[in-house]
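User: I'm new to structure prediction. If I give you an amino acid sequence, what do you actually give back? Let's try with this one:
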Amino acid sequence: LRAFSSIPLAVALLSLVVVYGALASVPIGLLALAPTYLFVAATLLIALALGVAGSVWAARAATRRWSRAPRFAAQYAAVLVGGALAVGLWAGFLWPLLRFDPAAGTGVRFFAGFVEAHRATTLRRLPALEMTEGEFYAWWPLRLILLLFVINMIVATVRRIEFRFENLGVLTVHTGIVILALGSMHYQALKQEGDLLLLAASTPGAPGPAETTFMDRTTPALWVSLDGGPWRSAPLIGLPRYNDYGEPLSDRPLALDLPALPGAGPDAAGVTMRVIGFGAYVELAQSWAPSETGAGAPMLDLTLLSRLDRAPGEPPAAAAELRLPAGSPTDRVARLAGALTIEHVPPGDPRWPILDLPVDGPGDWALAVRQPGGVWRAVAVEPGATVEAGAMTVEVLALHASAPMPIITPGYQGADSEVAVLRITPDTGEPFERWVYARYPELDQDIHGVGGDGRPDRRPADRAIGVALLPREQLHVYVRGDEAVVRRAGGSATRQPVEEGATLDLAPMIALRLDRLWPAAERLEAPVSVPPAEQRKDLIGTHDRSAVAVELSAGGWRRVVWLPFARFMNVSTGSDRTVALPDGRAVRLAFSRAPRALPGLALSLVDFEMVPYPHSEIPRDYVSKVQVRDLDTGRTRTAITRLNAPLIYRVPFRAREDRPALANALGAAVSVIAPNRYKFSQAGWDAEGWRQTSARVRAGALDRPRAAFTILAVGNNPGIHVIAAGAVMVCAGIPWAFYVKPWLLRRRRDRLRAEHAARSDDGARPERTRSAEPSLVGSAP
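Assistant: Good question. You get back a string of structure tokens that encode the predicted 3D arrangement of the chain. For your 781 residues, that looks like this:
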């Protein structure tokens, strides 16, 4: 008890708290400079000491016979002159040798490599810790320090401070500090933070899908769906945040075991899973490789050969090596220098029989139209041209060398194609507009005017009307299986058989060699680290740009798949990956955050509104109208959450019959003393959807803009009232201790002094009276 009541222990514990806070915020590279700074300071102090000592010794020797005052003045001047001379000599001769030059590597800097590598790295970001700032402050060392400080405060208060009225202030301060520390520990232990995405309903004003969970802010999780079943999550405890692990990013190993997938049958072995790689801030680069399972579309390996700058008789040089998977709309086409396009046509493509059609007339564009009887005819066209097919006419409105609008169809993002915009007048029915994609006929669309909602009435192309676009503005090579079609710029097309190792002559000095036709290919993804200069500082350590490598294995089968991060799981972002298991089942995997249950309620989005400043579109406020449903009682109510007026939900205490009466009573008391409240505040919204619908409102197609979703930040404040009570006690006790207590002690001192003076007066007054009375002895005349 004596040790726990000592003041030095309290000072040491508070010093540890300060050091802990510095370690959380100050880069360790800066801390590692401390030995260098101490060494440089030591050289300066030594030079200063030598200069001052030498000058003082010389001054004392020269002024030995002087009187005291002049000798002191001379020695004082010698100190100043010697110190200035020493500093000047140190700065002129020694400091240039000590100053560190990172470019040349000269000078003195201890642990130079470590300092440079960690100049912006705090302790909590090292591979051994990998913590956010909140996790570092909630770590057990700081809790232990605070607990020891609380014990020290309690013991010191009981042993050193008398429980007297005038000490009420310091007792209140100490008690408040203890309550504040305990409340902070309780707060850190039960604190929850995250966010929640609420989707709007398709019908305006109706509640959207109800959500009973929110996504935790810091806890990552792996989500698994087996054979189309529901998503299940497993938290990834110990997943890094700031450093790369596993091949091909780092040689640091990583192995986080995950729950195994059950086998296909009662006696079948399960599929084990574990995380073996992590990319802190990466992009997933896609590549293609032959399929190990035989599933997938075929793939071509080609080499473009050039005889340019080659001597006669020398073999052609490889100008480009290409890998074209037929299963990827983006990767199956290679465009080279704007003069040559090579495409691996997938099996079943309806264009294949007509790619070598002869074209009537010269020109860069040709339109193939199916005539009555099923015969195709190709005609050279330009904008404004008209092609007839029986009673049907096709008018060319526009021709585009690339898609005029980005292709956003799932699976085709990033792809491009020549596009023809046509106006087709069928033999029966109303005219309509058709968009024809030269390379992706499955994306062709028919537009029949404007729908009831003000948007174009888009429909899949009617295949009874056959129209295809054949670009001829450059050399085009189409390969499928054992055949190839070569269409020369503005000229005719030829079809010829090919085989592995065969060479196609494309031009006098250019040829194309078919190296290998793979029967099936699969897409592979590998992480590529983003350079630090291109990283967003606010996303570092948040997993938003991270990826994990999950290994699945069963028997001799093994598969590794990289998963990018997805913030939410109730919207499709294309971040999940599907793996075919050897037993024929399919498992979907996704890397996201761990779900947390809302406190006995379900939330649905009813309406959203962005309130702009007058006469502008700059947001002033965001208003989400949500439906709150109590899961226990089933009652619903409507609530509003705004930017600066969040929705506050106090978790009610509900007694349970399976608990003792005392436990229910204590729980009810705690819910009053330290209520658990959740706050739902506006954190995000569908800005793009609001912008697009606002444009349609201005066009008169909609009555008001709408948002497809809203994002609410979710957080609770466990024990915040306890922390506030401790802070109030500290604030109330300090004035008492510094002002009321001295006043009480002065009053007590004055009262005791007065009492002492009164007692002294009472004891001395009779003696003074008797001595003052005239003596009767010898008083007679």
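You can read the tokens as a compact description of the fold. Here is one thing that stands out. The chain has eleven helices and 36 strands.
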